[in-house]
Amino acid sequence: MRKLTVMTFLTLDGIMQAPGGPQEDPSGAFPHGGWSFDYFDEMLGEVMAGEMAEPFDLLLGRRTYEIFAAHWPDATPEEGGEGINAATKYVASRSPQTFRWAKSVQLEGDAAQAVAALKQTDGPELQVHGSSDLIQTLLRAGLVDEFRIKIFPVVLGRGKRLFGDGTLPSAFRLVSTRTSERGVIVAYYQPAGAVTTGSFARE
Question: Count of alpha carbons within 13 Å of 133, Cβ hemisphere only?
C-alpha cells in the first residue's frame, strides 16, 4: 500500500494559498501571493531536498498541475527538476485533460475512489503539493497518511486553508520537528485516531 503525504506551506492562521508568487493562485482576489519568499534559507532548502530525494509520484489538482507543468519540465537537476520530472503525475480533474508533460495521467471517475484504489497499487510514496481543493476531498475520505507542514511566521486573514470544508475531527501525533533561524517550523504529523476530550473543571 502506498503512503499518501500532504506537503504544504502554511501561515500561522492556516492559509496555504499561493506561497510562491503573486500569479500562483490569485483566485478570490487573493492579494498576498508570494508570502513565503522572505523566509527561505539554507535549512529549509535542505529539508525540501531531502523530502524529494527518495522516489515519489505526485497527486495533484488541476490548477496545481498547470502551475507545475509551466515550470518543472525545463528545470535542471540542480533546480530539483529531476525527481519531479521522473515522477508519475496523477491529476484529479472533473473535465478531460490533454497533457504535454511526460508521465501525466488523469484520474478517472470519483477522485476519492480513484485515489483509494491508487494507494492499493505498487509504487512509491504519493506526494500532494498545493492542490487545496483536492486536499479537502482527501481529508473527507480519510486518505492522508502524513502531513509535512512548513509553518511560516506570518498571518494573512484570508485565503484557502489547509483544513477547510473537508476537515473531520481527528487527533495527530508529531513525528518530527525542526525550526529555521527565520522562524519557519517544519513539522511532520501522522493521524492518531479520534479526538479525545476531558475536563479541567473541579468535581
Answer: 12
**Alpha carbons within 13 A on the beta-carbon side of 188:** 11
* Number of C-beta neighbours around residue 134 at 10 A: 26
CATH number of 4-191: 3.40.430.10
CB 86 within 8 A of CB 77: no
DSSP code at position 178? E
Q: How far is 139 from 162, CA to CA, in rounded Å?
A: 10
The structural domains of the chain, with segments of one domain joined by +, span: 4-191
What 3-state class would DSSP assign to 6? strand
CA 6/CA 149 separation, integer angstroms = 8
b (16+ CB within 10 A) / e for 50-87: ebeeeebbbbbbbbbbebbbeebeeeeeeeeeebbbeb
What does DSSP assign to residue 37? G
Burial class of residue 25 (count of CB atoms within 10 Å of its CB; 0-12, 13-18, 19+): buried
Output phi, psi for 105, to 5 deg: -135, 130
Query: Does pTM top 0.70 for this prediction?
Result: yes
Q: pLDDT digit string (tens) for 81-116? A: 788 899 999 999 888 888 989 999 999 899 999 999
DSSP sequence for 82-151: HHHHHS-EEEE-SS-----STTEEEPPS-HHHHHHHHHTSSSSEEEEES-HHHHHHHHHTT---EEEEEE
